[in-house]
Amino acid sequence: MKRLLDNARNFRHRVAPESETFRRFAAGQTPGTLFISCSDSRVIPALITGAVPGEVFEIRNAGNIITPFDPDHSCAESATIEYGVEVLKVKDIVVCGHSHCGAVGAVANDSDLTSLPSVAQWVSSCRPALAPMLGTPPDDLTFSKYVQRHVVAQLENLRTYPKVRAAVDEGRLNLHGWYYRVDTAEVLELDELNGVFNRN
Ligand SMILES: [Zn+2]
User: What's this protein's function (predicted)?
Assistant: First the structure.
């Protein structure tokens, strides 16, 4: 823990010696991208993308899950999406799933989550989209297909948000699906037209 605190205290010297870089943040933020990824410690959006402070607005949760829009129930994700799209006016939203994801794995493997009731309830929202694939526990290769299907489902859920749908329809917002391999650091991007994740 001490190393993390020491690094945090040295951050301003390490990353941006000119204090002007931070001073301008007092005026606000204008990130162009909302990046939605898992809480997994192996997935670090700024490190992977090379984003600098002020560039990327983030949602991180177990399994990079976006539940469908519900006008009667707000949650951290819905509030952050609303703020990002309506106030910050991000131009892109990325949903980034990853290999070896515990949340998707729990659904794919039908894991016993009796002792983790909050996790059980949270990941259960992934089940409908993955249902057609469930049955035999996946191996490493087929598991990537589960995660990629999961990413597509979260993009579909994003489109249930009126503000997202309106911004997409008006051409001022683009949605993207990524798949990140934690054991190779490889990134695949969804080609929505053909329903495949490509390396280039
Ligand atoms: Zn994960």
Answer: Catalyzes the reversible hydration of carbon dioxide to form bicarbonate.
